[in-house]
Amino acid sequence: MPYATQHADVATAELDSVLRGGPFHVALRAAIAARGLPLQRVQHHLSRHGVKVGVTSLSYWQQGARRPQRPESLRAVRALEEILDLPEESLIRLLAESDEHPAEQRPTGRSYRSLVEASGVLERLLAELDCPLDGGLHSLGHHERIRIGPRRELAGRESHHIVRAHRDGVDRFVAVHHGDPGAAPERMTVHALDNCRTGRTRWHHDTGVLVAELLFDTRLRAGDTFLFRYGVEDGTAGVSREYVRGFGPAGGQYVLQVRFDAGAVPVRCHRFTQHSAAAPRGGREELTLSGRHRSVHLVEPRVRSGYVGIGWDWE
């Protein structure tokens, strides 16, 4: 049997298998691969069906990082069944089955692709606000409190910053919030709590990134220190399994605290580090969940470039 024919038969067999058992993202990825279509061509075919879906969204769907949920997205799934020559309702059925198992809606950690795409989006959003990556402030301390709600969702967070200006004239800070896969940043709200007020906001739906200006009522001189506090109300995504914070240049102390709702307590928690988006995770250490306050925390005396976070497992 010629190699190409044998390869096609194997791909078809794999597709038939995942169409029966799922999950949705694996079936979609297998269907696209079996038809040999690049995502740009899939997007083109969808547009001919009167459905607009971005290549980034299609990529997330086949990775399992996001799921089609909005009416326009469900229209796209039905159109994909026709474009990819699949049995009617095959992909829609797999979506419905995954709705019955919400804890399986996304992979355990953020993928390299999602972190890189979010980084590129962040640069564009900061450019829209005419704000450089270096906002003129060094971090001396950052205490971050995360709330996990009764649906096991990332309900919100609060950040308390201690900063020092390293140039004259600094009068703002740009807060960045990266929601869990499936988050809707346009539905999030930012609250200025101490020594600041909210300014302009920008967001990008596909990556779940939100940026917001926090304006100071003073212009700092080089060497001045400043304290401020703000919060972000989220609650727009599904089940949360971790919180990750990325750092550029080395900075001061970082404290991360995660508190869980009484009706959503995980079975175990751990901390981890990651040198870069492409690097494997390391520094895993089990964390003890406090019984009364249902919280865990980590302390980094002096942060370094890379990522640090807390993950947790549900029953």
UniProtKB/TrEMBL annotation:
<protein>
    <recommendedName>
        <fullName>XRE family transcriptional regulator</fullName>
    </recommendedName>
</protein>
